[in-house]
Structure to design on (261 residues):
């Protein structure tokens, strides 16, 4: 597999995994500060959580494939593009409202990650 | 209860609730887990280069620091799941960039690695973004 394709696939699937996780834990409310033991074991019966786990494993595998060929200093800043992907998907699929200030904060964080990677 | 009190104050500083503490915990635990796993793999890899893959994986897992690292990493994952249950994902996920900050400081404290000036600037920019993100949101809570 082309290693750049593996890298982008890893980023996309890793981002999608976060959406699956959020979908899986939403609507399972608990009314104290901390979730109960039953809440945790309930997650094991959620298809969303299993989908999250599987995509997490696939994304990690693809990431390792990509890193075996691509320098980590090049790959890391690209990883921060998944913040934007997750925000777009969360707006589209989970109806999260993403205010302008949050987009701005995202851009600043991405810029910082790029600076750290090139330093 | 504490959280509602803090958030009803008009924009006074950072808002740090249980979810934010869990997020930081998940970052620190994941980073420490990675370090432990890496250390154990270094030991096991040199000893088992020629073994079959299944035997090698067993040898890796029998390394105490690999096993411990996986447990620590698992605790970090549970903390992340808890945080995700409390906050919007478009708010939380970019905050995981704090990982780079934690790793930079960890490298400095544990291995005496120097942090070049450019990286300090990057760390500062990430932290500014994290503060902006923290203050960004009405409707942040679940």
């Amino acid at each position: 597999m082309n290693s750049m394709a593996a890298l982008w696939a890893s980023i996309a699937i890793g981002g999608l995994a976060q959406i699956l996780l959020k979908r899986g834990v939403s609507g399972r409310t608990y009314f104290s500060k901390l979730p109960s033991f039953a809440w945790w074991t309930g997650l094991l019966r959620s298809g969303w959580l299993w989908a999250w786990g599987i995509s997490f494993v696939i994304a990690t595998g693809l990431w390792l494939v990509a890193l075996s060929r691509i320098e980590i200093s090049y790959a890391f800043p690209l990883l921060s593009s998944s913040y934007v992907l997750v925000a777009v998907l969360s707006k589209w699929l989970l109806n999260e409202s993403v205010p302008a200030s949050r987009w701005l904060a995202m851009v600043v964080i991405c810029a910082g990650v790029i600076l750290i990677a090139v330093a | 209860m504490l959280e509602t009190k803090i958030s009803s104050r008009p924009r006074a500083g950072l808002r740090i609730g249980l979810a934010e503490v869990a997020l930081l915990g998940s970052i620190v635990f994941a980073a420490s887990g990675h370090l432990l796993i890496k250390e154990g793999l270094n030991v096991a890899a040199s000893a088992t280069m020629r073994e079959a893959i299944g035997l090698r994986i067993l040898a890796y897992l029998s390394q105490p620091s690999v096993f411990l690292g996986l447990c620590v990493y698992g605790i970090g994952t549970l903390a992340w799941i808890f945080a995700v249950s409390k906050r919007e994902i478009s708010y939380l996920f970019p905050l995981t960039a704090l990982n780079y900050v934690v790793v930079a400081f960890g490298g400095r404290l544990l291995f005496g690695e120097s942090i070049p000036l450019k990286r300090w600037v990057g760390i500062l920019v990430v932290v500014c973004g994290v503060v902006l993100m923290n203050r960004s949101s009405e409707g942040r809570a679940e």
Summary: Residues 1-10 of chain B have pLDDT under 50 and may be disordered. The two ends of chain B are 15 Å apart (CA to CA).
